Amino acid sequence: MSNYDVLRVFCGPGGGYGNELAVVREGSVMPEREERQAFAAKLGFSETVFVDDPERGVIDIYTPTLRLPFAGHPCVGVGWLLDVPELVTPAGVIGVRLDGEFSWIEARAEWAPPRTLRQYGSAAEIDALPVQAPGVGAPPTPFGQWGRVYAWAWEDEAAGRVRARAFPGRDDGIDEDEATGAAALLLTQQLGRALNIVQGVGSQMLTAPQPGGWVEVGGRVRLER
């Protein structure tokens, strides 16, 4: 098995929670897409990143079942790990900056996979949502027919504080995403304002719309191993 790092991205203030990410720093050891896909499936993380050029920030992102042109928490994590000014993905070039305890990326919401952004009336309603087993043809759920759903509610609308949970709708053993940067991009674009999002059990994401249709997403990153 190839050597890889494990990061935790979008950690809470105490360094806990966040979404795990595998990073293969020497992507050249596994150059073929089929190899990479099989390796990502074997590891079982929500995403695995292969670094093809660490100086230029060229990366390749996989879930256990498919290749992604862009994903939020992998880019935030790899940007922190490589400490480069930008990342090059199939979707486009992503700006990266480090600011104190936060790692930030600047990306476009249209790069994110489509999903349903479903608003609820309170944070308590978000907390009470059941985890639904994914799969095509699944019976109706509280969200309607199954698919990528980002359930959110205001905790404090004036302060931009949001409570959210993400249900990816993938039949690969990942029923709920603890922290989803791509969904945060979409929500920020829809609302047109900076957000402080607590997702999952206790992960934290900060966002801010930028000129020209760009959105910044930031969070804490920790090296697990």
From TrEMBL:
Superkingdom, natural source = Bacteria
**What name has this protein been given in UniProt?**
PhzF family phenazine biosynthesis protein
Q: What Pfam families has UniProt attached to this entry?
A: PhzC-PhzF (PF02567)
Q: Which InterPro entries match?
A: Phenazine_PhzF-like (IPR003719)
Against SUPFAM superfamilies, the record matches this protein to: Diaminopimelate epimerase-like
